[in-house]
Amino acid sequence: MRLVRVAAIVVTPALLALLFSISTTGTLPRPPLDPVFDTESAQAIATELSLEYPSRVPGTLGAENAALWYRETISSLGLTSREDVWHADLPDLGEVELRNIVTVVPGRSQEAIVLVAHRDNAGVDSSLGDNVSGTAALIELARGYAPQEAAPAFRPRRTLVLVSTDGGAWGGAGSARFANESPYPDTAIAAIVLEGLGGRGRPLILTAGNAATSAPRTLVSTAAERIEEQIGVRPLISPVSRQLVDLGIPFAAGKQGPFLENGVAAVTLTTVGSDGSGVPSGDVPGALSVARLGSLGRSTEALLASLDASVGATFHTNATLYLDDRAASGWAVRLTLIVAVVPFVLGVFDLLLRGRRRRLRLPPALRALRARFLVALYAGFVAWAASLAGVFPTGEALPLPRHASLVVDWPVAGIAVSAVAVVLGWLVARRPLVGHGRPAPEERLAGYTAALTWLAAIAVVVALVKPFAIVFILPSLYAWLWLPLQTRIWPRIAIYLAGLLGPLAGLLILADELGLGPFDTILYVVGLVTVGYVSLSSVVLALAWAAAAMQLAALAFGRYAPYAGGVEPPPPGPIRRGVRRVVARRRRQTAT
Fold first, then answer.
1. Rounded distance, CA 387 to CA 99, Å?
2. Which CA distances in Å does 409 have to 398, 412, 413, 518?
């Protein structure tokens, strides 16, 4: 442990770099003309859409008619639009037909500014995902670029692309389609997503991406300034804890995620939900704040003007932590997290060398760890099989909506069957892990050494490929390093539980961001895995960490035993016995 304390000095330069990277952000100039966004007109549009097409679930006749209504409304302004029709597999809906409607206002430059709002919702009985205010603001902003009878239409410096998307209430399918397939994001300097502008909560700017990246500083700062000028209150940005969790997964609650993943600077302008979550709130006309819709509409118009008037503006997406009116550079945060692993790795290396000098028998401990890793992989396989059976969702690799049936109506029977399958697999695998006596101190130390070395290897891999995910495992690294030094069971249990604070805190922070309960959030995360939103590499690393956690739990609670009692060579396990049975059966069939 002395080596760990000495090695902790290397973290100091990284912390200093992080502190020095915190600075104020630049802001684009305020446009010379005041916004002319018509609040009453936007309110009328929102009311018309909600009353005529109250249910706009993707793939239904209501959604198709709403798309036609939008096209006709845009056409009545003298603007032309193009419809992009495709099919997507969405959770709870299956294979449905979706429609994006794209309206282009040519500018004097090929560079584009993209303005996005989804028009679908979760149905007439739910306000979740309803975005009549965003659609109304999109149409009202388009009016300013429509041809006029007395004068030619205003031509912006940059091309303006207005996108009414489908599937927004189901993870932002339309935004992902446009960001991935349309040619306009290739020339876009920024994208602004409008969602829940008529909510009664405080204005909120969402900055997280589907990859470990964030919206650029200048774009976020300019959006905040334009909103504060119109409302008199500075908009909220997600707390640092939420930003770290979003970067670590990575996870984006807003529709700006696909744009940032593709390198396009993007933010979502919205309002805080009534539950305080970081997910854009619904805003049906009965609960619509007309004043907030008007002020955020004017803010968006001013932001568009600032972006359009900027000369040579380029916004580079990168990971950033926002601290109110200041920001810390992502590279400094990433460096600090990577360097924070170094003292632990050196401590484990020292433990490994000491174990070799004491001639610890590591193979039985490594086999025990391997058995636990195979159990973790088996649990992952059961979850995958359950998704094929319809217990967990499958479909497009998009964030699940909060109203997904997995969350609001638990598949209790399917979860119970999956849990029983995992327990049965564990009972089969644990037979060679059951001890017939108290393990010797050297065997326990070998178990600790194997598990901590495995944990160090995981930490190095995470630091190299997903450095922000270190925030989830960092408490376990330094808490569990103290376990071999404890001889009494209660201190061991307390230290072990302290090591679980990383994933538990991440789960609670995500639950707060989504406005869900802890158990709902666990199912939500499983759903993110089964739809493919969380990458396979992240899942494997998480299961590998779980294997080390299981072995250290057995040691901390006094339930550890070396594999097969330390017998060399060990008897065949369940997999080898099963293979041998199959081979013997094939040989008998061939002989007969």
1. 27
2. 20, 8, 11, 15
CA distance 579 to 581: 5
Determine the Cα–Cα distance for residues 456 and 477; give it in Å rounded to an integer: 8
The answer for 481, left when phi > 0, alpha when psi is -120 to 50, beta otherwise, is alpha
Q: Which of 160, 122, 115 has the alpha carbon at shortest distance from 300?
A: 115
Q: What is the pTM of this model?
A: 0.92
DSSP state at residue 578: H
Q: CB within 8 A of 415, min separation 6: which ones?
A: 386, 391, 523
Other CB atoms within a 10 A radius of the CB of residue 52 amount to 11
Distance CA 120, CA 403 (A): 14
CA-based nearest residue to 240, from 320, 351, 159: 320
The domain ranges of the chain are 1-24+338-359, 26-324, 361-581
More confident residue, 102 or 572: 102
- In this structure, the number of other CB atoms found within 10 A of the CB of residue 323 comes to 13
For 465-501, letters b (16+ CB in 10 Å) and e give ebbbbbbbbbbbbbbbbbbbeeeeeeebeebbeebee
* Structure tokens given for 519: 């158990």
Within 10 angstroms of residue 44's Cβ, the number of other Cβ atoms is 13
- CA 399 from centre of chain: 7
Length of the chain equals: 592
**546: which 2 tokens?**
């779980």
| pLDDT tens digits for range 390-433 | 999 999 999 999 889 999 999 999 999 999 999 999 988 888 88
Cα–chain center distance at 405: 19
Q: Which two tokens stand for residue 236?
A: 């909220």
- Cα distances (Å, whole numbers) of residue 213 to 321, 399, 497: 10, 16, 31
**CB contact at 8 A, 273 and 515:** yes
In the block, residue with structure tokens 């017939």 = 436
Contact by Cβ (8 Å): 120, 169: yes
Residue 265 exposure: Cα atoms within 13 Å on the Cβ side? 21
CB-based contacts of 166, cutoff 8 Å, min separation 6:
58, 63, 67, 98, 99, 100, 118, 119, 120, 173, 174
Contact 296, 230 (CB under 8 A): yes
Residue 212, number of CB atoms within 10 A of its CB: 21
- Both structure tokens of 230: 């119109």
Contact 480, 351 (CB under 8 A): no
C-alpha angle 456-461-465 in degrees, rounded to nearest 5: 150
CA-based diameter of the chain, in Å? 96
Q: Are strands 326-329 and 158-165 parallel, antiparallel or unpaired?
A: unpaired
Q: Is 404 exposed, middle or buried (0-12, 13-18, 19+ CB in 10 A)?
A: buried
26-324: CATH homologous superfamily?
Zn peptidases (3.40.630.10)
**Residue 31, pLDDT above cutoff 60:** yes
Q: Is the dihedral of CA 215, 217, 222, 223 positive or negative?
A: positive
Share of the chain above pLDDT 90, in %: 69
